[in-house]
Amino acid sequence: MPILATWIARVLACALSAALTASTISVAQDTSGTQKPDAAALANAPTISQMIVDPDGTLHFGPRTVPPPVLYSDEARAAYIKMMVQHAKASEAKGGLAAAPAAETPTAGVPSKKAALAAYPVVEETSNIGGVGVTIYSPKVIPAKNRYKVVMEFEMDAEAIAVASLGQLKVIKVNYRGGGPSIPGNEDIVAVYRELLKTYKPKSIGMFGASGGCTLAQTTILWLPTLKLPLPGAIGLNTCSGGGNHGDARYTMNGLDAALSTAFPSGNPAFHQPPARKPDEPPATALDGDIPKGYPPAFLLSGTRDMCLSETVLLHRKLRNAGVDADLNVFEGMWHFFWENPDLPESHEAMAALGKFFDSHLQ
Q1: Helices 345-361 and 157-166 sit at what angle, rounded to 10 degrees?
Q2: Cα(219)–Cα(233) distance, rounded to whole angstroms?
Q3: Contacts of 43 (CB under 8 A, 6+ apart)
Q4: Rounded to the nearest 5°, which phi and psi values hold at 11?
Q5: Furthest-apart CA pair in the chain: how many Å?
Q6: Cβ-proximal residues to 156 (8 Å cutoff; 6+ apart), any chain
Q7: Residue 276: pLDDT band with limits 50, 70, 90
Q8: What is the distance between the alpha carbons of residues 221 and 315, in angstroms, rounded to a whole number?
Q9: Which CATH superfamily is domain 112-361 in?
Q10: What is the β-pairing status of strands 234-240 and 205-211?
């Protein structure tokens, strides 16, 4: 009986919380006597209803329950629960839509760069290339076959470190301006690329990035022909984001994504259509513009709970339809840039595959 009583109490609590969301959904009576939701109330309802996170990672959205994925690693399960509970507790403290009333607040994790350096031994160096600040990560010893290859990374130290170690390649993280997809960011990437072209052949240079850095990688590639610059030898497009063409997953995964969900204080802000770009400027989003002739082989990465999954799979189709050798990798149960956590087997697998991709395609 105590177990049943606890279950009933939780169901009632979920039902009550759903009724107390920012926009309460009322019902209207039709002529047959059947109740139906009021259209005006539904139109003004929040993107996700009030959300409760259980200690085991089960999610409750009003009367809807979503269990945690069962086909991912134990490490991913623990990391996902920790992130969801932390975000929900933070939301609860600020009177937001998410709460985790039955869970203890997890302790803060190790920053991703520090954790990556512990997991993947590399040599770190700060420098300036083409007037742009960069951080260079290299394996302790670069194999002879990779000494004349280099990869540019945009956005995340953890993935730069992982690819440098697992791919046994020199990786240059470009510390671009703007903090996200922007023309200054494209300009900084091009400035570094121009300098590298003085030392490396185009087909020996790779580019990759995550989230906004993924968008910068793609839009830079599309901009290079306008600048009369050669295309690089390979590109990694790790869950592109940004702009107004964000796709269905932005809504269907909202609340499930441990990184971007709008119910969390650190969640993704509301979308704003980017200003129109001029013909001589880089496109605003990864899905804009035509695929140029000679576009390099592409590695694409996302997860089934990533709010940017739609953009990734749509970009993959666009590249394939243009005849590009495009390799799509989607990981079960994974959230937006899950590979930032180097302790996950899925993260190691993804970064090892990306490192192997560059090793195979760069000349």
Answers
A1: 60
A2: 16
A3: none
A4: -60, -45
A5: 79
A6: 112, 209, 210, 211, 213, 337, 340
A7: confident
A8: 13
A9: Alpha/Beta hydrolase fold, catalytic domain (3.40.50.1820)
A10: parallel
40 Ramachandran zone, left/alpha/beta (phi>0; psi -120 to 50) = alpha
Q: Which two tokens stand for residue 149?
A: 């290859």
Between CA 136 and CA 147 the distance in angstroms is 14
Q: State the chain's mean pLDDT as an integer.
A: 87
Q: Which residues contact 143 (CB under 8 A, 6 or more apart)?
A: 168
Q: What is the amino acid identity at position 281?
A: E
Band of residue 14 on the pLDDT scale cut at 50, 70, 90: very low
Distance CA 326, CA 133 (A): 30
For the chain, domain boundaries: 2-99, 112-361
Is the pLDDT at 173 greater than 70, yes or no?
yes
